[in-house]
Hints:
- The chain is of the alpha/beta class.
- The chain has one domain (2-170): Ribonuclease H-like superfamily/Ribonuclease H (Nucleotidyltransferase, domain 5, 2-Layer Sandwich), CATH 3.30.420.
- Helices cover 43% and strands 16% of the residues.
- A 6-stranded mixed sheet has the order 4-3-2-1-5-6.
- Helix 6 crosses helix 7.
- The radius of gyration is 22 Å and the shape is elongated.
- The protein binds magnesium ion.
- Residues 6, 8, 153, 155, 158 line the site of magnesium ion.
- Residues 6, 8, 153, 155, 158 line the site of magnesium ion (MG).
Amino acid sequence: MRYWFDTEFMEDGHTIELLSIGMVAEDGREFYAENSQADLSHANEWVQENVLPHLWSRQEDKGVANRWSRDGGVGSFNTRRNIAFELRRFVNEGEGKPEFWAYYGDYDWVVLCQLYGRMIDLPAGWPMFAMDVKQLAVSRGDPKLPEQTSTEHHALADARWTRDAWAHLVMLGRETQDQRLRAFASLVIDYSNDAWAIEQAKAVLGA
Ligand SMILES: [Mg+2]
C-alpha cells in the first residue's frame, strides 16, 4: 500500500528534530502526530513564522483536531517513542508492503527513520527508502503540479497535497499514454493488413 507523508522539523546542519508528521494511506486512513519533546527554542525565524503557528497543539481552538480524530484520524501530541509505535501500527494495518512517498523528501525520510533509531532499526518489512514525487515530476518533464489550497507547512495538509500531486502525475502519464496509443492506432489503420488490429485501432479512435 502507498503512503504519502510529510514532516515539519527543525534542523541545524547536524541534527533534524521532528516537530510533526502527517501521513495518508491509499485506503484513505490518516495519521498525524506532533512531537511533545521538541525543544521549540531551536526553531529558527522561518519555522517560527511558517510552521509553529499551524501546530494543532498550539491552537487554542482544538475543534479542527477533535473533528479530525472523530472522523477516524489516528495520532496524537506525544513522545517520539509513542509516535513511532503508533505510526508503525498505522502503517502495518495496511495491506501488503508499504511504499512511502514524500515531496522533496530526503530530510522527511531521515527524520521518519530516526523515530526508530538507526537505518537497520526500521520496522521489519518496511522499505529502506522513500519515493519522491519531485523525482517523478522531473522524470516526466517537470510539469506544473496542482496548487495547494490548504494550509502549507502543516504536515497533514502537506501529506494530502503530496498524494494529490502524485495522482496528478499519474493521470498526466495516462493522458500521454492515450495520446501515444491514438497515434499508433492511426498508423495501424493506415498501414496494417491485420484485420483484428485494425478493428482494435478503430475502437481506440472511436471511429
Ligand atoms: Mg511540510
